[in-house]
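Many introductory courses stop at the sequence. We go one step further.
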Amino acid sequence: MHLHRLLAGTATILAAGTAIAGTGHQWGDFRWAPGGVPVTLDLSFQGGDTADIWRPYYKGSSVAAFEKWGENAQSPLTLNSTELPADDAAANACDPILGEVIVRADTYGSTGWVGVATIDADAEAFISWATAQINDSYFTPGSFYDTPAQREFVMCHEIGHTFGLGHLDTNFYNRNLGTCMDYSADPDGGGRYRSSNLDPGQADWNVLNSATMYGEGADDGGSGNPGRGGGKGRNKLGAFPPAQAELPGGRFGGIVGYDAEGRPNHYVRDLANGHRRVTYVLWARGYRPEGSRLR
């Protein structure tokens, strides 16, 4: 089922107020469709001024996130891709499109963030649209992020969020867990980091194919097994994070969670008609945003 057709009917899938407990490192209970429903999802790439640098990390190469997530035999998603012409891509824009994922890499300036993933979810926790933004301002020559591995990791990571995946772990300096959904200061691994974090891992496929995401089986919020370093089994947040008004304020909304360095990296905004806009932020090395906890 294509998402443009699916979204119009999602309100009838579950009774109002139904809470589904997410599995493992699923992002809350968010997903594009009920378990077992075939999903075809459109991704659009907006390259901005640095399109030629980032395009191979998005699609069409051995390091491309689109192929990693969409062409793996374990992927429950069918992905289509288009590219927005440069003259249609306003400076730094990443305007959402209903039923689609927009991926944009551009020079956003000294924002403090390297990557931002945002989803809009309806009252039943179904995703309406998603965006993934990468700030090329932090990938300048000679910078900490100026490596092919960092580019490959952040593209895989932010796109993974748009499918409804959260973090397996948010400690940059411990042993890699073998998935791009695990924070790492050295994503290509080796030495004390060991495994590579450049690709989706088995933990990601297990969650994506679970009954609380896109797999077959009873859609009853099964408990799921905890993942190493961050998977929590049954999701403790219920169908949604707490209301924005109940949370400390931050740059992207109410603060829901923090990374291992005490920096707020998970935010929610309350919108009309029960919608929530939920954001994950990958902060630059050494940056301390407002709302950070003391270390």
